[in-house]
Amino acid sequence: MSGHALPISTYLARSPHAQMLGHVGLGFGCSATLWRNRDARISYDDPQGHTLSFYTRGGQGTRRLDRRGEAAHGWPGAVCLMPHGHASNWEITESFEFIHLHLPDDELRRSFAQICDRDSRLMQLADLTYVEAPELAAPFQALHGATRRADRLAAEAAMHELLGRIFTGGRYVTPDRRVLTGGLAPRRLRLVLDHVEANLAEPIQLRELAALAGLSEFHFQRSFRASCGVSPHRWITARRIRLAVRLIAARQPLAQVALACGFDSQSHLTRAFKAAMGVTPGRYRAEILAGAGPEQG
């Protein structure tokens, strides 16, 4: 096995009987993938990124070998959370189907900071195997259906709903009660984030954000990354791209979308959007229109 950390999808792709039944990119390295697998032993050694798993068919022949005191096997509706860097070993003796939601560590922390308005360092995803989680079933099933249809917009909506429930569900994020050092004070961070949201259509300079935080630009960048999981530039880009997604879904012209989201030109939007989402804004719009069917009226 390579010494480089790999996503779980790469390990699965090497499994002799694994079949990918559907896949959709969700932006910033996130993705949802439908799998079928059977008759295998798989070891995930130091996996890159977090994986949220939901069994959709079978699972009684699937066991986690390195854990004791948990359910002996899976079942349709079983949920597994596999945190970034946590090794695990699995045995599969019967065919089953499941969906994996893959989330890079920095993106999950950014989402936690945004959704929960808390320091990203407090996010510790629990390592859970075969749990009954009825509150997660609906968004997982929505994500499954959207991935099977290759419906990006619906899949993104299901992902955000699922993350909201994960972060607020109590048992999915383990409490981290350590005393944090560095980072931004909550009041200062809120000033910065509110300023970003109010000015997405305008140029946002690092120095103005640092001034709001009362720090030098160097110390602000380091403190922001500690609190939010990503750099200020990455945070701003993510917020602009998410706004662009909403405006594209509302069928606004791409030139207007670019201006509304703070990009210098449509070509600037295209470059940033493709880097984040894996497709150009035009292709994304075409996929949305194809999924929505003929426009009414």
Automatic annotation (TrEMBL):
SUPFAM superfamilies for this protein: Homeodomain-like
Pfam families: HTH_18 (PF12833)
Keyword DNA-binding: yes
Domain HTH araC/xylS-type stretches: 190-287
Keywords of the record: DNA-binding, Transcription, Transcription regulation
Keyword Transcription regulation: yes
Name of this protein: Helix-turn-helix domain-containing protein
Species whose genome carries this gene: Paracoccus simplex
